Amino acid sequence: MIKSVSKKIATSLIALSFASVGVMGTSQNVNAASWHKGTPKAMQGTWKTKAGYKMKIGKTSLNYGPKLGSSPAKYKYLGQHRYAVNTKLGGTLKVTATAHHLKMQGTTYYK
Length: 111
What we know:
This protein is α+β, with helices and mostly antiparallel strands. 21% of the residues lie in helices and 40% in strands.
């Protein structure tokens, strides 16, 4: 009788330990693509089109030129050199940025 009770207790302890490992081992969903303040390092600098239009992108804002001024920015990395950049003047822009090219709203900029 004592052997059967101790066997039941041992079995229930093992089952309880597996259940606690299952609860503790579950992963939480995390949103890796969160919005960051400023602009990505790959976009920072002075960019110009072949037509001569210039745009300066700083650490925290996009400067659209003397007529429009600058606007604070935040960005989200989308993968493969693509970013979603949100500004007060331009709304959310889809941008592809490499070392020497910047594509934004169908326009290609060069360093």
